Amino acid sequence: MGWVIGIVTVLVAAVAATGGFWLWREQRNAKAPRQLNAAVAAAKKAHRGSVVTRQTKAGKVVYLMPDGIEKPAPAVVQAAAKTLAALPKGATTKTAVVTVTLRGVPYGLASLDVAGQGYGVVAHRLAAVAKKATGLATVTMATGQPATLHQLVDTDPARRAINYQARQVLADNKKLSDAALAAVLTQPLLADLNAQNFTLTPTTLTILDAQSRPVAAVPLTRIAQFMKGGRAKEQPGKVIALTFDDGPNPTLTPQILAALHQAGAKATFFMLGSGIHDYPQAAKAVAESGNEIGIHTYDHQYLPGLSVTAGLDQVYGKMTQTYYHTFGTLPTLLRPPYGAIGKQLAAAEDLPAIQWTTDSQDWESKNAGAILNRIRSTAYAGGIVLMHDIQPATAQALPNVIRTLRGQGYRFVTVSELLGGRLLPGHQYFGRGDERPV
Ligand code: ZN
Questions:
Q1: Among the options 350, 388, 427, 434, which is catalytic?
Q2: What is the C-alpha to C-alpha distance for residues 63 and 51, in angstroms, rounded to an integer?
Q3: Residue 150 Cα, ligand 1 centroid: separation in angstroms?
Q4: What is the pLDDT of residue 1?
Q5: Distance, CA 263 to ligand 1 centroid (Å)?
Q6: DSSP per residue over 172-192, as a string?
Q7: Contact 62, 37 (CB under 8 A)
Q8: Which of these, 53, 158, 165, 389, has the minimum number of CB atoms within 10 Å of its CB?
Q9: Catalytic: 245?
Q10: Is the per-residue pLDDT at 420 higher than 70?
Q11: pLDDT digits (tens, 9 = 90+) for 339-350
């Protein structure tokens, strides 16, 4: 009889142990998913705004969105995928809670920040990862969807001007090789007004490449005048810009600099690339004197007579290489020889064309008295005076020209001071308030 009791006792104990183990296992297995659900529920409860839940192949995603925005932007979807992917290998019940916040930046846009919290179950335990990204994308404040460039910029010339500012950021004072310089000048950057490859903060426009990596960070202070509502800050009052073409000249350019310095006046020099190459000291003296420098092609070609490729070579090519290696920066102003530039070239190069309102005709008269008379009788406020620093009579006339104009109440400014820094590619500028498409 005793052995029967013994067997029963053993059986009962075995059943009890099995049941206990089963119960324990059930509880153990349920614990982590329960913790996971509780964490997700708590995050949802604490959120004030829209909640969007999506099942993906990689796991479940709970988007905690700003109020009224129901559709996560592509950058948010990517951030969710990255959060799920950051969970340990073999995790099950994967869930990402992605909190989306929008920080207002100018132009009705917002900078998108994402905080991703990933949860999963690994070996019956709750695993959690956190991934944060700020300034992930720039979106429209009202919709949370990616912004396009035309929300910031009205016209294509303004877009090109912004690209050129980005090229300056990439090249200026960087001592680039010719190959690197050519790459900077031909990078597409913001390819058209539908471009979305940028982010905007209150201070900076950052242009991204095709892999969404930053390529150029452009301070808004450099480009505000090209953005929507931006305006030129033209120099008011009785101002005039003296300009000198065709130099530098090793003898006359220093004389002209001395006359300007003595009179406390500033001017703009449109130099030939070949001249900079031949007389780098004279060219550098102009830069060091604080006068402005523009370009006048490499060797004084009549641009409308050239193919676009040859024209580009006269503006960029050897011209910009020589300029860059001498001054360390990209040129910003172009005076086409004879004031002539065709529509096609103007559409292909990004420098504004600077014309003039008063022609001194110094190359024709070669006479100091005639130059002075011509300028005195045709100058007006906001105008640009064309002279040449390869004409001895011009160097001779300059002190009198300055004295006479000053006597009439003129102040001397550089071309970009006069025109106010909103100079557009494909446009030509004859003087203050006289801007025309090429
Ligand atoms: Zn010329």
A1: 388
A2: 6
A3: 38
A4: 63
A5: 25
A6: TTS---HHHHHHHHH--SS-S
A7: no
A8: 53
A9: yes
A10: yes
A11: 999 999 999 999
